[in-house]
Amino acid sequence: RRAGRGSRNLHPAGPSPADQALEAALARLERSGRPAREVVETGALPPVMADAHRLTEIFFILVGNALEYRHPARDPTVTVRAERRDGYDILSVSDNGIGIEPEYQD
Length: 106
Hints:
Layout: E1 16-17, H1 18-31, E2 40-42, E3 47-48, H2 52-68, E4 78-85, E5 88-95
Parallel strand pairs: 2-4
Antiparallel strand pairs: 1-3, 4-5
Helix pairs in contact: 1-2
């Protein structure tokens, strides 16, 4: 099932711990035989207004894609960060993989 689909609540009752969602995604990746914890760098992640299951799915997909589309000449690195901007917590996920061809970028 894809993240963003289904009947989950789009307006959660309260904040979800982003660090727990990331940890759940990493544990799921490790159970499937992918070395997720050893390639992810992260700092403290705040609670965010999001459905915990969807947030876990998003982290699972992003980190999983980073592992699948790694650059063959480098060890994979995935960075998960949070920053506060204009009163909002912004989560970002970046990696050093093969990237996306310019014609497919928005």
